[in-house]
UniProtKB/TrEMBL annotation:
PANTHER family: FMN REDUCTASE (NADPH) (PTHR43408)
Annotated keywords: Flavoprotein, FMN, Oxidoreductase
InterPro entries for this protein: CE1759_FMN_reduct (IPR023932), Flavoprotein-like_sf (IPR029039), FMN_Rdtase-like_dom (IPR005025), NAD(P)H-dep_FMN_reductase (IPR051814)
Biological source species: Planomonospora alba
Name the record gives this protein: NAD(P)H-dependent oxidoreductase
One Pfam short name: FMN_red
This protein's record includes keyword Flavoprotein: yes
Domain NADPH-dependent FMN reductase-like span(s) in chain numbering: 5-154
Length: 204
């Protein structure tokens, strides 16, 4: 049985980068979950080194060797982690430009975990109003938990770690085709008591 392929895309612009650090932590947490069932290979695609190739591709329409290999890694992955810094309440231009290079049907059905970094918690909703709709348009299967890390989260310990572990568990379950099944992440709304039944329980 061939190893599973897990790819993390990091759009961090600095070195070192908190975006890359978050991508690495998410990839390792997911790999650890998957490794309980299958051998898993991890690759991180750092877009900072592909910026010129991405720009040239948008102008000329032809990817260079490094960009082509990165696109093939992403489209051939069993699971994808996509991490971007937040600029002006949305994903970075580099992040969006990379996914513009990819054919808009190539990610259909692919399990994706979305994540982002920023200086303030106020931008955390960018996961829901920017990243999640983009991957929904690409028809990817996006894990319910997105992970946002503000500057203050890196010193908070358990809060960020807990979100990373939950998101990794969900992505691993999606990759293995077990989301919502026994032993995987359960749907929190699966066993909701109907409102009528709750009302009847209150009547004398």
């Amino acid at each position: 049985m061939e190893p599973l392929k897990l790819v993390a895309v990091s759009a961090g612009l600095r070195e070192p980068s908190s975006t890359r650090l978050l991508a690495d932590r998410l990839a390792e947490a997911t790999r650890a979950r998957l490794a309980e069932e299958r051998e898993t290979e991890v690759r991180v695609v750092d877009l900072r080194g592909l910026a010129v190739d991405i720009a040239n591709n948008l102008v000329a329409g032809f990817p260079g060797t490094a960009l082509r290999e990165a696109v093939e890694a992403v489209t051939g992955a069993d699971g994808l982690i996509a991490v971007t810094p937040i600029f002006t309440a949305s994903y970075s231009g580099l992040f969006k430009s990379f996914f513009d290079v990819i054919d808009n049907t190539a990610l259909a059905g692919k399990p994706v975990l979305i994540a982002a970094t920023g200086g303030t918690p106020r931008h955390s909703l960018a996961l829901e109003h920017a990243l999640r709709p983009m991957f929904a348009y690409l028809r990817a299967v996006v894990a319910p938990t997105g992970v946002y890390a503000a500057t203050e989260d890196w010193g908070s310990g358990d809060g960020l770690t807990g979100r990373i572990e939950r998101a990794a568990e969900e992505l691993a379950a999606l990759v293995l085709g077990r989301y919502g099944s026994a032993g995987a992440v359960a749907d929190p709304f699966e066993n909701v008591v109907p409102f009528e039944q709750q009302l009847s329980a209150l009547r004398p």
